[in-house]
Amino acid sequence: MKFGPVPVAEAEGAILAHSLRLPGGRLRKGVRLDASHVQALVAAGLDDVVVARLDPTDLHEDEAARALAAALGEGRAFLQQSEAFTGRVNLVAERPGVVCIEAEAIHAANAIDPSITIATVPPHHQIHRGGMVATVKIIPYGVDGAAVARACEAARGAISLAPPVHATASLIVSEIDGTTGPRGVEAIANRLTGLEVELVETLTCRHEDRALAERLLAATGDIILIITGSATSDACDTAPAALVAAGGVLERFGMPVDPGNLLFLGRLGDKPVVGLPGSARSPVLHGADWVLSRVACGIPVGDAEIARMGVGGLLKEIPTRPQPRRGRSVK
Question: What is the spatial distance between Cα 262 and Cα 258, in angstroms, rounded to a whole number?
Fold first, then answer.
């Protein structure tokens, strides 16, 4: 691509590099100049204008962006491609779900030419319907077609959306004498709603192994959530023990995400069971969101996957937390 000033008389067919205000109105950058545009520039008294001219092997920015966005989502359902504008095309989620990304493929595509860029949300990011999953941006007005072809090949099918595979959930709340009933149910229900999962029942019981086991066996939701009146502090504590007593399996207790350290994960028959820490009663971003979204969308999550959540797992401080994670600052 050739870029720079040219005499106005020679500008027809070129791409205007910078917007201009003319007596007849604004001439937007990126427009391909035709004879009427040239006449307007002459009438405005301009001698030179800065333009871009594509080489025969170049693709226009919009064409290149469309091709790369199409390659990214090739063969993937639930991703919608926006119209190209100023060299940009967005990939948007048609459903809520979890975004799956082949990071090395994105890195490879971005390394081909600085003019060709792909930006995405983080891997396993929970997205809402209509949320932006990725954006392709071609920096200049045109880029070498061969480079675009290599980027398309490198990034082909690198982004997908896993939609929810479970439709309902049950919440079991254990209570200790003196408590005033379930708290924080709304925040938990909202987490499920964001995944188009319906909270079909909230079951309460005493904070005892047997009572919890009975509720686990009675739960009708596709996913079972437990939040206890007393924090779970060991894999043999009340709630994990109740899961085992009900015939279930404890797969993981504890996660390297804060807030969310005391979460546990298991299974009762074909139903996933998620033990939520008390901090999940708050609506702030929580380790439970990372686990629940994967569970709801059928993405494998177990001991190995949770163990890898520590990098980036220090989430926002909860202002109401009774035991701060850092001491008082000393001046």
Answer: 9
